[in-house]
Design a protein that fits this description.
With 710 residues, the chain is of the alpha/beta class. The longest helix is centred in the N-terminal third of the chain and has 18 residues, at 91-108. Bound molecules: ligand MGD (2 copies), iron/sulfur cluster and molybdenum atom. This is Molybdopterin oxidoreductase family protein.
């Protein structure tokens, strides 16, 4: 963004989004048309992980903040649920009405109140900082935040006992990088810069992804497996490693296996059942691809895997992750700098103080946990049985469940309950906000302070407000403080200011002075284990101190193996006969989940919601490139535009996400089609485990419902 206005100041901050890169930014503030505005955003040139560059979407963060449709006052519903009719009210009116309603429900049973939040901001203050304290004090239900990474996270904990990995900057030293279930050109562009450095120095890049993604197109090789078959691929790869060794080529690092792992004999037995031929058949790839991959993995040093979350959003996602985590242990890849694996670095930070989350404020009162990935079922549950009280109030912040949660038909039906009291803290009138009883206007990252950790590197970052809050917006933490006061609560924990919360998050465990001066500080836990990689000499965080490659009876886990998708010809042939296409729904490049969909410049780039299809599947259905199509299964319908190209393999379609329903072609989005069944580990959403059929449909009238053939 260029500008020639005199600058008032440049304010350092941190990107709040759910992205492994957690960039440090600089915001230029100028005086424009009688108000202070951020006129340009750029990456901080001195932060080694940001190296002066923000991604395209976040370079538009100022456009989003100063958007003409920003919510600037509290709103109260004045029409039927979901009609989108609201009237402005004062903060005092809104806070006292909400406090009254919540305390009336809490008098019957506070567990009937449910918070719903995810990673609109990853900040420790405006994320759960004050919110968690508030809901514990209230005695509300707790939310199991499973919508993104909990299958892979549980696998990482079970196998390595620690959410730690290869330092992202060390990928520059790798000579082989497997980019597995990830599209970093879209979702982690600063990792991609490291991969490019390695590539220029001669490294080979292999992408494992059903979709020929932006990244796959720029790797040396692309293994386009069927969705949800990564576990089978890892088993076949291990089988090929064993064959290679049996043929006389030293392949496994027996010393590493003996000293630093447990359970390999059990896993080896399972691998024995997965011939390369069997794995190739399940994955829909050739045997040669698996053997070549095994040869490359065994013979290249240093060799590393960037494993990400795209491969764990299926029934067997946890098992598949456990199998892939075994690969760098088998060959001792961890021994060299630039070798090993990175999935998440989120465990490489000091733990938050036990009192930070305010669990003590709940006292001895009971709790229950609602899984956010099954929100529709939770809202529609009549109550009783093991479930407990019916959900009577939902307080949503940092999330847009009407758009992002699976099985949106059920979510919308739940949000439409006239007797459900819904409060939404938001920047915009999202699909979710349309169903609110009260909408409370929240500040963006340019208008509040915060402190951040990262799941892709190991720095703690500080965010400073560049602007005063726009309109009557308030930071999330302030809104929860204000609600606490309206409820008459006087505990000091509930009055902690944002700067108190920043200071309390890590306490003395980090160097606050450096953080304040520089804007970031490397976590004291950045280097776990022994150099040059975290696990060069074992040091895993499991009870045994070893990487657990086999069963974990203490966690109720069997030896990892491949599990067929819930919705697959193997597991449900009758369903597959009716809905023969496997659908995945990875993010569109210029959106961040459902954030930025309403930013005109970015939506103009994405243009329309797309379904990528292979020409063979399109032709068989009389569909041409650019046609409007109806994608459907027993759960619902989604109208979008067909992109007939070579990005999809035959039998697989890609519904790029996550559009605002009301900005899509016919008032719905791809989550009309996804289901609420959970993954094997971590009870996560299985977004990419989904069968559909597609047919042509007449173009929808502008802004209206599509005309869907009967
Ligand atoms: N631009 C942009 N960036 C984002 C996001 C966004 O929405 N937009 N979202 C952010 C969030 S919340 C997250 S969690 C991260 C996610 O970041 P990553 O975990 O790196 O995932 P994605 O980049 O979404 O890429 C997932 C890839 O997995 C592929 N995939 C789908 N199914 C399978 C499968 O069964 N096996 C394998 N091997 N691959 C599969 C998809 O085709 C896609 O290319 O990205 C973050 N960054
Ligand atoms: N089909 C399909 N569905 C998916 C995915 C997929 O790949 N396919 N990806 C899944 C994944 S990985 C994730 S993480 C989830 C993400 O789901 P969400 O965490 O719900 O992410 P967003 O859609 O970005 O919505 C975040 C909302 O928070 C608001 N927000 C941001 N900052 C603040 C703040 O400071 N205060 C308040 N009050 N609000 C704020 C934004 O305006 C935005 O509307 O979606 C999941 N849904
Ligand atoms: S790359 Fe990720 S962390 Fe960096 S600005 Fe973009 S969304 Fe934010
Ligand atoms: Mo995510």
């Amino acid at each position: 963004m260029s500008h020639d206005l005199p600058l008032l100041r440049t304010v350092p901050g941190a990107c709040p989004h759910d992205c492994p890169d957690t960039c440090a930014w600089l915001a230029d503030v100028a005086w424009v048309d009688g108000q202070e505005r951020v006129v340009a955003m750029r990456g901080h040139p001195d932060h080694r992980h940001t190296h002066g560059a923000l991604c395209t979407k976040v370079s538009r963060y100022a456009e989003r903040t100063h958007h003409a449709q920003r919510l600037l006052t509290p709103l109260r519903r004045c029409g039927p649920k979901g009609s989108g009719q609201f009237e402005p009210v004062s903060w005092d009116e809104a806070l006292s009405a909400i406090a009254q309603r919540l305390s009336a429900i809490a008098q019957r049973d506070p567990l009937a109140i449910v918070p719903y939040s995810y990673a609109g901001t990853m900040g420790l203050v405006q994320g759960e900082g004050m919110a968690e304290r508030f809901f514990h004090r209230l005695g509300a239900s707790e939310l199991d935040r499973t919508i993104c990474a909990s299958a892979g996270g549980a696998a990482l904990s079970a196998t390595y006992g620690l959410k730690a990995g290869l330092p992202v900057q060390d990928f520059a030293h790798s000579r082989l990088i497997l980019i597995w279930g990830s599209n970093p050109i879209t979702s982690s562009v600063h990792f991609w810069t490291r991969a490019q450095e390695a590539k220029r120095a001669g490294a080979r890049l292999i992408c494992v992804d059903p979709r020929k993604s932006e990244t796959a197109r720029r790797c040396h090789q692309h293994i386009a497996l069927r969705p949800g078959t990564d576990g089978a691929l890892a088993l076949g790869l291990m089988h090929a490693l064993l064959e290679r060794e049996a043929a006389g080529t030293p392949t496994l690092d027996h010393d590493y296996l003996d000293r630093y792992t447990a359970g390999w004999p059990e896993l080896r037995d399972e691998v024995g059942r997965w011939s390369v031929e069997r794995a190739a058949q399940v994955c829909g790839v050739s045997e040669a691809e698996i053997r070549d991959l095994a040869d490359a993995w065994a013979s290249t040093r240093p060799a590393a895997i960037r494993l990400n979350y795209g491969m764990q959003r299926v029934r067997g996602g946890g098992n598949a992750t456990r199998l892939i985590l075994a690969l760098p242990c088998l060959t001792g890849a961890w021994r060299e700098r630039g070798g090993g694996l990175l999935m998440s670095s989120s465990g490489q930070f000091p733990a938050l103080d036990a009192r930070f989350g305010g669990r003590h404020l709940r006292g001895a009162r009971p709790t229950r946990v609602i899984n956010m990935s099954a929100l529709g079922d939770a809202l529609l549950h009549p109550g009783g049985d093991a479930f407990g009280p019916r959900v009577e109030a939902l307080v949503v912040y940092n999330s847009n469940p009407a758009a992002v949660a699976p099985d949106s038909g059920q979510v919308i039906a739940g949000l439409s309950r006239e007797d459900l009291f819904t409060v939404v803290l938001e920047h915009f009138r999202t699909d979710t906000a349309d169903y609110a009883d009260f909408i409370l206007p929240a500040t963006t990252q340019l208008e509040h302070d915060d402190i951040h950790k990262s799941y892709g590197h190991t720095d703690v970052l500080l965010n400073r407000a560049a602007l005063a809050p726009l309109g009557q917006c308030r930071p999330n933490a302030q809104i929860f403080r204000d609600l606490a006061r309206a409820l008459g609560w006087t505990e000091p924990e509930l009055a902690a200011s944002d700067s108190d919360l920043i200071a309390q998050a890590f306490g003395d465990a980090i160097d606050m002075q450096t953080l304040q001066q520089q804007g970031w500080v490397t976590s004291p836990h950045a280097s776990v284990g022994a150099a040059p990689t975290p696990f060069a000499q074992g040091g895993f965080g499991t009870p045994s101190g070893r990487a657990e490659l086999g069963a974990r009876p203490d966690l109720g886990l069997a030896v990892p193996t491949h599990l067929d998708n819930y919705e697959s010809p193997e597991a449900d042939p009758a369903l597959a006969a009716r809905y023969p296409l496997a659908m995945i729904s990875p993010p569109a490049r210029h959106f961040m989940n459902s954030t930025f969909v309403n930013v005109d410049s970015l939506r103009a780039t994405e243009r329309e919601p797309l379904l990528e299809m292979h020409p063979q599947d399109a032709t068989a259905r009389g569909i041409a490139h650019g046609d409007t199509v109806r994608v459907f299964n027993d759960r619902g319908d989604y109208v979008c535009r067909a992109a007939v190209d070579d990005h999809a393999r035959p039998g697989v379609v890609h519904g790029l996400g996550v559009w605002w329903r009301k900005l899509g072609l016919a008032g719905s989005n791809v989550n009309e089609l996804t289901h609420q069944r959970l993954t094997d580990l971590g009870a996560a959403a299985a977004f990419y485990d989904c069968l559909v059929e597609v047919q042509p449909c007449d173009a929808p009238p502008a802004g209206g419902r599509a005309i869907i053939p009967a």
